[in-house]
Amino acid sequence: MSITYLDAIRAAQEKALRDDPSVFIYGQDVGKFGGAFKATKNLAEKYPGRVIDSPISEDAMVGLAVGAAMEGMKPVVEMQFADFSTVGLNQMLNHAATTYWRTGRPCPMVLRLPSGGTPGSGPFHSQSMETIYSHYPGLVVMTPATVEDAYSMLLEAIGMEDPVVFCEHKLLYYHLKAEALPSEAVPAFRAHVARPGRDVTCVAYSAMVHEALAAAEELAGEGHEIEVVDLRTVKPLDTDTILASVARTGRLLAVGESWPWGGASAEVVARVASEGFELLDAPPQRLNAKDTPIPYHPNLWAAHRPTAVRIAAALREVLRY
Amino acid sequence: MSITYLDAIRAAQEKALRDDPSVFIYGQDVGKFGGAFKATKNLAEKYPGRVIDSPISEDAMVGLAVGAAMEGMKPVVEMQFADFSTVGLNQMLNHAATTYWRTGRPCPMVLRLPSGGTPGSGPFHSQSMETIYSHYPGLVVMTPATVEDAYSMLLEAIGMEDPVVFCEHKLLYYHLKAEALPSEAVPAFRAHVARPGRDVTCVAYSAMVHEALAAAEELAGEGHEIEVVDLRTVKPLDTDTILASVARTGRLLAVGESWPWGGASAEVVARVASEGFELLDAPPQRLNAKDTPIPYHPNLWAAHRPTAVRIAAALREVLRY
Amino acid sequence: MLRARFAEDKLASLYRAGRIVGGVYLGRGQEALSAAGGVALRKGDVFAPLIRDMAGRLAFGEPLIDVMRTYLGSRLGPMKGRDGNIHRGDLARGILPMISHLGAMVSATAGVLLAKRMKKEKGSVGLTCLGDGATSTGSFHEGLNVAAVEKLPLVVVVADNAYAYSTPKDRQFACADLLDRAKGYGIEGEGVDGTDPEACLDVLGRAVQKAREGSGPQLVVGRLLRLCGHGEHDDGLYVEKELKNSERGRDCLSVMEKMTQDRGMGKDWEKWKEAAHQEVEEAVKKASEEPVPDPFEEDWRATRTQGAAEAWVEE
Amino acid sequence: MLRARFAEDKLASLYRAGRIVGGVYLGRGQEALSAAGGVALRKGDVFAPLIRDMAGRLAFGEPLIDVMRTYLGSRLGPMKGRDGNIHRGDLARGILPMISHLGAMVSATAGVLLAKRMKKEKGSVGLTCLGDGATSTGSFHEGLNVAAVEKLPLVVVVADNAYAYSTPKDRQFACADLLDRAKGYGIEGEGVDGTDPEACLDVLGRAVQKAREGSGPQLVVGRLLRLCGHGEHDDGLYVEKELKNSERGRDCLSVMEKMTQDRGMGKDWEKWKEAAHQEVEEAVKKASEEPVPDPFEEDWRATRTQGAAEAWVEE
Ligand SMILES: Cc1ncc(C[n+]2csc(CCOP(=O)(O)OP(=O)(O)O)c2C)c(N)n1
Ligand SMILES: Cc1ncc(C[n+]2csc(CCOP(=O)(O)OP(=O)(O)O)c2C)c(N)n1
Ligand SMILES: [Mg+2]
Ligand SMILES: [Mg+2]
Fold first, then answer.
1. Is the CB of C230 under 6 A from ligand 1?
2. Domains, chain B, with CATH or none
3. Residues within 5 Å of ion ligand 3 by Cβ?
4. Whether B32 and C301 lie within 8 Å, measured CB to CB
5. Where would a tag sit more exposed on chain A, N or C end, judged by fewer CB atoms within 10 A?
6. Residue predicted with more confidence, B87 or C22
7. Side-chain half-sphere CA neighbours of D159 within 13 A
8. Near ion ligand 4, which residues have CB within 5 Å?
9. Do D73 and D240 form a contact (C-beta atoms < 8 A)?
10. Of A268, A152, A272, A271, nearest in space to A208 by CA
């Protein structure tokens, strides 16, 4: 059997629906149609009344989930694309995220965001939105990079008593495959050393993990051992694992697919600089997308995002110091 | 004559209305009433038809401004509180900000955000939103700290061919005073050394500049010379001025009133760590608000935000290294 | 209504004396409509009040002491000083703690009702209040539309006081009457003179009843004026004199008083007044003496899940 | 209409051949309504099309070559490869480049019209299109309400094709007819059979005329079906057979052809077809041969103001 990243997301939702009667799914076209990406295929048939088609109303979708969560349900809301979640953002940042601290009562819900760039999808179907959600207090923001994590982290997200933003990467949906679903998993809040090495720590998350791994492979051919740390969850950030890695390597490159100003890569570099200054043998560096909207034409898109080639070049720079 | 920060904002809008027929003001209660904070007082009378009351429709307010800007006008949109701009965020991030790169045609508009905490205003009338706006490409984000800057930067913002997010700090509205409005000014994109010093660089912006200055004063009494750099504009960020300062001091504390994950202070620390690593004699540090919603009770609020006392303590830490 | 009015009068004077933490936004003149909502609901229902719903809150059962705790900054209030005043709520009592963003509570209340339906809890109604200005928000539209699609037992009460802060209704919408919106959502609606306590009880009772019986969302538009500023910092001078002097500008409490007297219950009215006064004073006194929040004892964690979770293992 | 149909047929086959950059979303079956909008407008007007408005675009004067340039990834297209396909626009021609977020163009078009009014440019109309599903967005509500308050010359055309992607209308709204919304905004509305080209020309002509004469926003709801999937990746099997076989499922182009033949213009129709075919083929050929965007030559700056501005000095 071969299971894709998307299959894993579907399977996790199915398991959650099966195991917990308080779980329900809400989103545009998620019902009979199975969702724009088929992440909820057949679930409406199997769990009647619990996989619900919503109108095109992102604000109300999130608001409704907040209300349902306050009333003890565990809604999983699918945005058709992460990019459209700006319309539901107010309910997420100001309502879902503030409920626990303001009232002491939990607001357990998951917002699934099909995220990230794919060729030809352009400025409004390619965004990575973890920065915005992570900046505001009260949310957990997950960015799984593997089939196994897509499954186990989504299950953990649904089980959590906090509102979780679950950033799935569309580029991984179909291509990334695993042999089987995991039966146990590292906790979602822990970063993972995806490839050990001792020369540079390359911190990445989501699709960038695979670009980083490819770059590491390339540099292995040049005699350099790159350690790739997969953040898995960007809020809260597992600083310990990052610092432990930098303690081994003395060098850091943080990679993010989102824009350069103030994203997860800035946060990683800032933390390492503050808390691990003495561990560093070279200036910690960042690599991000270019600071423009995400281009529609694949030629431009390929140059806009960090790729294995660009990561490898950045790693060589870090090594050269 | 004594002019407040709020007077300066009003005066800049008046000058813009007078000098440029394409400028108009749009916002809730901005007309005859003069705005919730009176930033547009008497302007509707003086410039009939150009200071327009809007419905409570932040999405449409920004969308309307985008359309008007594309058609050659220069709208200045007032949000009643920065916090409500989440509702208009989609039009700002995905429409205003992308127009120039997508089409080559400018989208000159200003979004005025009464920002920041004041005692008793609580989680939804206290936010600083520069992080979200700065992360997305295509926007200029200004955060003036002085009466003079409030005036000259707002004029520059209105004159600019890009969409500008103008973050005014409500705590400065009435208390901060100057003798006169400036007749010339440092360009908005340049940071400013608000107080020279040679022991630590303390980077701040908006209301935090004044807390930093008070902390610097306090530390002067202990024999330390703190250099306070006022960012003025957080996007684009004037890295040169910051690095030049760190080159003098060898130490950095970046202060922001917004939440810790990924804000301007993370961006500053990350840039200095990357580009000015060798200038640093100590780990660069950050100080931000606590990672919870902004508390309503003044006791909690005072402990939530960075204050002169907390900044002074952080500076002592940096000095101790 | 009386308790609400006296409580608010007291808050206004405490505000002027500088004793209130935060702002004070009153519902003066809007008590009849608000209270009628609270009266029409019963235990197990959900109430999502807005800023002018002191009367509805008290009628629904919010303890007066919790009101005063919030305004006076007691740590024992329902929000512990973290959030306050008009935002206070108590999920255990079915009072949703509003967020400031107007319109946001419509879909949230719908969500509570959807959850109750999924949990097979039958017969609960949700009631949410907003002003005429809040109908211009996309949230109002999306929330009401979703509720209509799901045919949820939601009552949306619009207190049309002709102004949103200083903005008169002709700058807010172009329809003749906000009730004209009901048909566009495929729901029922009814208007009411918001200064007439009996009419309010009648119309809101009916709306809640219909919602309870499965007729789907109900829109109620009450016409009235607020007899105070937007907040206590505002003099409200922009409200047109003509409007103030019209029927619409009547004080529902005077109407109520007259009604009571006409029915020969003038003495009862005086007694109620006395009791309400006393209750308010006691609550203020009690709340004033309670401890304030302490930042050093505060739990500064915005999520319930803390640190790394335990390893997840398939059962 | 013919050019639109052929252009889209061609795009569909190019899509299947893997030659298209990005997705392909067609307006098959919706050409009559869309084209009628483009026809009713004149130079100086503003058109904010949505994803199914190839016909309206071409009728309004968008060059076919620009269409093909965008779909085939030519660098010479109006968006230079930075954005593309259905998002293309050309501000100089009065075609607003849509963003994907449904409903967002309503207020933006209103803004263009407000600007024209402030600039004292009289007599311009703005027309924006959207689907039945997009009426559930807060943006639609806020935008239309603002336009009504400002009494702007805005025509909002809703192509009610009974589905939003796979979602049938009873999951989208609960009103009997979207036209029922007009009254709630205080504006005029008219419905039309979207499969009848003459009726569309008539109704849209009238709506545009009314807007131009100062009657404020006009809502037009056209009833029709899309005779294709949501995008070319979708088979659209969820559309009910009964609906497909009803009057509403007629192909407006066949209606048009029959009409032409009935009027003895069968030969002309054939000639038009031939000409349209040829024009499409030529545009495809030309666009295919044009250079693609080059990341190394690209200007990667998202703001026009670059670096530090010159010092500002009071004149
Ligand atoms: C989304 C949003 N925008 C702006 C505000 C600021 N605001 C608070 S109350 C108010 C006026 C509300 O008017 P209305 O809905 O008519 O209620 P009323 O005050 O008349 O009771 C405004 C603009 C807000 N709370 N939320
Ligand atoms: C705010 C927003 N949410 C979701 C989407 C994704 N989306 C694109 S088209 C579409 C369906 C639109 O349906 P409708 O408005 O009826 O137009 P139709 O496709 O039927 O022409 C959806 C959900 C979007 N573009 N914008
Ligand atoms: Mg009102
Ligand atoms: Mg449709």
1. yes
2. 3-178 (3.40.50.970), 192-320 (3.40.50.920)
3. C 131-133, 161, 164
4. no
5. N
6. B87
7. 31
8. D 131-133, 161, 164
9. no
10. A268
The tally of CA atoms less than 13 A away on the side-chain side of residue D266 is 4
In 3D, which of C163, B119, B133, B81 has the Cα closest to residue A135? B133
Q: Which domains does chain D have, with CATH numbers?
A: 2-314 (3.40.50.970)
**Distance (Å) from CA C144 to ligand 4 centroid:** 20
CA distance B152 to B188: 8
Record: contact D138-C136, CB cut-off 8 A: no
In angstroms, rounded to a whole number, what is the distance separating the alpha carbons of residues A24 and A13?
A: 9
**The pLDDT of residue C292 is above 70:** yes
Cβ-based neighbour number of residue C300 at 10 Å = 14
Q: Please name the residue of chain D whose CA is at the shortest distance from the CA of residue B185.
A: D312
User: Relative to the CA of C134, which ligand 1 atom is closest?
Assistant: 15
| Secondary structure of residue C223 in the 3-state scheme | strand
Omega prior to A106 cis, within 30 of 0:
no
pLDDT band at D209 (very low <50, low <70, confident <90, very high): very high
- Average pLDDT score, chain D: 94
Predicted TM-score of the model (pTM): 0.98
d(CA B299, CA B306): 13
Q: B264 with B233: CB under 8 angstroms? A: no
CA distances A198 to A251, B232, C187, Å, are: 9, 41, 66
Residue D4 C-beta-side C-alpha neighbours within 13 Å: 28
Contact D143, B63 (CB under 8 A): yes
The closest alpha carbon to D47, from D103, D84, D90, D3, belongs to D90
Q: How far, in Å, CA of C5 to CA of C11, rounded?
A: 10
E strand spans, chain B: 3-4, 23-27, 51-53, 74-78, 109-115, 140-142, 163-169, 177-178, 184-185, 192-195, 200-204, 226-230, 233-235, 252-255, 285-287
C84 pLDDT band (50/70/90 cuts)? confident
CA C212 to each of CA C53, C117, C122, C126: distance values in angstroms, whole numbers, following the listed order:
22, 12, 9, 9
Average pLDDT, chain C: 95
- The C-alpha angle with vertex B238 and arms to B232 and B244, in degrees rounded to 5, equals 110
Residue identified by tokens 């400025």 is: A123
The CA distance from A164 to C174, in Å, is 40
Written as six digits, the tokens of D35 are: 């084209």
Give me the mean pLDDT over the C44-56 stretch: 97
Contact at CB, D175 and C181, closer than 8 angstroms: no
Structure tokens at B226: 């703190």
CA atoms of B283 and B270, how far apart (whole Å): 11
Residue D310 has pLDDT above 60, yes or no: no
Which one of D70, D119, D142, D145 makes the best mutation probe of the B interface by having the most chain B beta carbons within 10 Å?
Answer: D142
Residues of B in Cβ contact (< 8 Å) with A85: none
Residue B250 burial (10 A CB sphere; 0-12, 13-18, 19+):
middle
From CA C47, how far away is CA C63, in angstroms rounded?
Answer: 14
CA distance D265 to A115: 52
Q: What is the ipTM of this complex?
A: 0.97
DSSP labels, A152-216: HHHHHHHHSSSEEEEEEEGGGTTT-EESS--SEE--TTS-EEEE--SSEEEEE-TTHHHHHHHHH
DSSP conformation class of B93: I
Residue B201: phi, psi to the nearest 5?
A: -90, 125
CA-based nearest residue to B157, from B235, B274, B264, B224? B235
CA D37 – CA D206 distance, rounded (Å): 11
Ligand 2 centroid–CA D209 distance in Å is 29
C235 contact partners, CB below 8 Å, separation of at least 6:
C229
